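Data card: per-record layout.
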Amino acid sequence: MLHPQVTASLAIRQRPPADVLAADPQTQLAFARRAMEESIEAECGPAVPLPVVADVDAAGVPCRLYAARTGAPVFVYVHGGGWCYGSVETVDRLCRRIADRSGCAVLSVEYRLAPEHVHPAALDDVETVLNWVRKEGAGLGVDPSRLAIGGDSAGAQLATVAARRQRDAATPLDYQVLIYPAIDPMTASESYDEVAGNGLDRAAMKLAWETFVPDPMTRFTPDVAPLAVADLAGMPPTLVLTAEYDVLRDEGADYADALLNAGVAVVHVRYQGVNHGFVRKLALFDAARAAADQIAVSLRAALTF
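The structure for this 305-residue chain is written out next.
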């Protein structure tokens, strides 16, 4: 059953008026970006204070570092937003809570967005950050020898592609957290038909994929479509979170199954009654706080060895 908090959450963010919807795509995108940023306080609530919250330059990629102690393991976080919007600000409250509850440092990535910067710009930025933190992390007071990655939606797609590329480069990561990952550029799963209309639908996801990767042939290569990888063996242990009323629900489950079949240790948890995007909305969803704490506990178990 759809939780009443979903209906309440959908009323928070300003929706584009008819004249904006009829305008050019750039006007629509600018409206969506602004609306997401302006709803942060209402959706995400107050900021948890931490000893360290600092904006840093990771070899040219802006990032925000959150840490509650020195010598902490590092969780690189990649925000969602259809590869076209979202920022370190839109996941600030979530990153703070994870850092506070896990004891890990969280490094949130401000990657370049489409359509101004199409694939592989965002992936290049994430990989740049991973390579930078391995080299410079000790100078930041963190422990880059214990390194995980994660993200939500489009950010989860970037995170798991980067994790696979790190595996292929013989520099494997220790753990990954994938929150309703965007996995399938074909948008073919049944959940698109079963639960559309709860804040995300097939048309929106198709537009996001096409904007992020304009070349149709590139859309089905391993660096874009994680299930196109021939062999997922050796991927890091993984926590996958999906939402019952999310059109990305089934592809996230399919990816969790594919990792399991490849011998990867996977925990897949489906949060009932909630929709896409709920995890960062700590002020609106009881399930968001539970999910953030589950992520924190899993990171603590995986990285504090």
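Known properties of this structure: The CA atoms of residues 180 and 242 lie 5 Å apart. The chain is about 40% helix and 20% strand.

See the next section for split statistics.
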